[in-house]
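__Record contents__

***
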Amino acid sequence: MSILLFLLGSCGWWEARKACEAAHESETEAWASLDAALVAAEADAAKASDAGAEAAKGIDSALGSAVEGAPPTQPYNMAEMAQEAYSRASRLGADAKEAEEQARWADYTLRTEAVAADADRLAERAAREVERLRAWREAYNQAAVALVMSAAHYQLVVRPDDSETWPAMPLSLASAGDLPEPNPEDPAAQAGRESVEARREALKERRDQFSTVIDGADRLAFDTERASQIAVTRARDIDYLDLPTSAQVARAAAMQAIAAGGRASEAAAKLKTAAAENRALYEGGDPPVPGPVELARNGALDASKKVKELCQ
């Protein structure tokens, strides 16, 4: 009886040992798959960051050209307009009072049309600035992904061969900050660390560019909202001018300014929200983990968990 129990126990021990060995093999394969996914994701993210930066610079150039090509606001001189209207009225046999009245509502019309045009111009630029932010955000995000992937790959490269555990792999910017020094006699480790530092420099460049764009977006949102308020205030001034009912052009300009002010206010609000969201990402957000890497990481962590369960 005791011999039978011994044989049964031996069989159980052997099966447990084989299961443990198989789990270790699966674990090694799973972490190798994760490493391959990290290398591929790093390369893809670096290319995407460069492409995104080029696209963003194209938007920058287009915006700069649009601003440079915008017609300047014309300074309107009330005295000159009054003199011109007076001369015209005199030629037509009208009196000076009528000339002054015409000059007054003509001046209001032109000034109101000018502030409405400024509001619309800034509203359009604010809408483009949201697109510009989106492009620089993608360039920054991808540069961050490249750094995180590079750092994770480096952690696997420098992992001691006799280590019984694998890295936790949080895949965050924080985890890419404090890395072990490479073995000077290990070319793979040296190359891995150089790659990490190159990605770190690339991300710093993207951060600087991204920060500049965010600051500019904040200023533009303020300017656009201010232009909106000026346009609306200018439109409402018509109530205090006591203009004649015949001054329909002036009243149309007032309605145009109110509409332009509304468009500018809406564009400013959207840009302000976009700038705040991007600033939050810039100040502490982690980039999204690529799908293939997330799947490979989960598989590797599950494989390590199975080893702990079967090999205790």
Remarks:
- The radius of gyration is 34 Å.
- Confidence is low (pLDDT under 50) at residues 3-10, 66-76.
- The first helix runs from residue 2 to 69.
